[in-house]
Structures are given as C-alpha cells and as structure tokens.
Amino acid sequence: MKSKSRQGFSFIEILIYLFISSLLLALLSTMIWNTLRANRTYKAEEAIIQNAQFIMNFSAQQIRPVYSIADIRPDPATARFYTSSSTAQWFTIVKDNNNLMQTFSSSSPSTQLNSASVAVTEFILTPIFDDLASSTVEGVRLRLRLSSTNASESVPLLEKTFETYVGISSR
C-alpha cells in the first residue's frame, strides 16, 4: 500500500489557527481602543485645565482692582463690576448657554472666555463680606465647572470643578 503524502493543513489545524488569530486580533484592537480613549481623555483634561487657568486668572485680574460689585445673580450667572466710583465704567461676566462672556460697557462687543472645545456648565460668583453685619464686599468666591464638548458623544468625556477666592484690593 502506498502511503499518503501530506500536502497542506488539516481542517482542525486551520480552526486552531483562526481561533488563536482572532484572540490576538481582539486583544490588539482592545489595546488600540483603550490607547485612543486615554489620549482623548488626556487632551480633554488638558483643554479643561488650560481654560480654567485662563478664566480664573483673567477674572482675578479684572475683579481684583474693582471699586465695587453691584450685581451678582446666580441665574442667569451675571456679575456687574464697577471699575471706578462713577457708574460709567463697568464690566460684566455672563454665562450664556455653555459659554462665559465678558463685556466692558454696554457698547463694546462681548468676548468669549472659554474655547469651543470646553463648555462652561456652571459659573457662580458668591460675594464674601467683611463681616456678618457689614454690606461691604471683601471679595468673591468663583466656582467654575467645565466639561469637554464633542459633537460625536452625547455625554461629556470629562467634567471638572474649580473654585478660587478673589479679594478686592481697591478699597
């Protein structure tokens, strides 16, 4: 009897190869997906922190030398600050939708303080008084909640809250 020469792989060998290949492919695709997600999260966190630093530093530079604070309302989140004893010089900080806007008088255009990739989900200014019986404002507590915005995702990738105190130095 002649012996059969073997030319190729058996059906079982091909199935084992396909199973091992699919496991390796699944593992590799999971690793790539997690790396891409971590990269998006890192970029979102970096954008949020940069926006928070800019908004808080800019607000502190504008608020610190004011003469008085006339109006702080949490809804809508609006604050009007007078830069001199006359009521002619003032500026406002307003939360409009998911943007933080600043206006330096009624005739000047508004300036957006946050970037397009970051939404301002909360902006609260709380006046801090010298003492309980006084109506003199010593400063303000600024609370800011920022979240990443992405048109392809229905929920924000990341959301962070920041808080600081800004003293008024012009008294």
Provide the fold topology.
Elements (H helix, E strand, L loop, with lengths): L10 H53 L4 E7 L2 E6 L7 E7 L2 E5 L7 E2 L5 E12 L7 E12 L10 E9 L4
Antiparallel strand pairs: 1-2, 2-3, 3-4, 4-5, 6-7, 7-8
Outline of the structure:
The chain contains one helix and eight strands, in the order H-E-E-E-E-E-E-E-E. The chain is an alpha+beta fold and 171 residues long.
Structure write-up:
This protein has 171 residues and is α+β, with helices and mostly antiparallel strands. It is 31% helix and 35% strand. It has one helix and eight strands, in the order αββββββββ. The strands form two sheets. It has a five-stranded antiparallel beta sheet with strand order 1-2-3-4-5, with no helix packed on it. Strands 6-7-8 form a three-stranded antiparallel beta sheet, with helices on one face.
